[in-house]
Specification:
The longest helix is centred in the last third of the chain and has 22 residues. β1, α1 and β2 form a beta-alpha-beta unit. This protein has one domain: Rossmann fold. The model has no long low-confidence stretch (mean pLDDT about 90). The chain starts with 8 loop residues before the first strand and ends in a 5-residue tail after the last helix. The chain is an alpha/beta fold. The protein is built from 4 helices and 4 strands. The chain is about 35% helix and about 15% strand.
């Protein structure tokens, strides 16, 4: 069994923490099934998660009703092994020794559900590829 200290931690960051980063966190948490610690945050958190994002995630059986946008902190970045930015610009603090990835993805804000689904599906594909990198032996 993997020790807690050996569990990789991933932080997803976008501006409002109301769309892309919430979908990515929920999808990675779901697929990793406890094998990865997952967090998300925003450089300027919104008041609530985008309703279209909640709806497209519910279609996959993932409930975001208890989730909420969280502020980005230096501590969260420092704790992460991998930091994935999604349009947060230069506001994300950079620490030596961290792995940073920037995922260029459309912002679901203001889009109807039928336009949010392809964004969700692209995030899902990227999350699955990331999980395969993080846990290659997949015991």
């Amino acid at each position: 069994m993997t020790q807690t200290a050996d569990v990789p931690e991933v932080l997803f960051v976008c501006v409002h923490n109301a769309g892309r980063s919430q979908m990515a966190a929920a999808l990675l948490d779901h697929h990793a099934a406890g094998r990865v610690r997952v967090r998300s945050a925003g450089s300027a958190p919104a008041d609530e998660i985008n309703p279209a994002v909640r709806a497209v995630m519910a279609e996959l059986g993932l409930d975001l009703s208890k989730e909420f946008p969280k502020p980005l902190t230096g501590e969260a970045v420092q704790a992460a092994d991998v930091v994935i930015t999604m349009g947060c610009g230069d506001v994300c603090p950079v620490f030596p020794g961290k792995r940073y990835l920037d995922w260029q993805l459309d912002d679901p804000a203001g889009r109807p559900i039928e336009n949010v689904r392809p964004i969700r599906d692209e995030i899902d594909a990227r999350v699955r590829a990331l999980l395969a990198e993080l846990l290659p032996a997949d015991e």
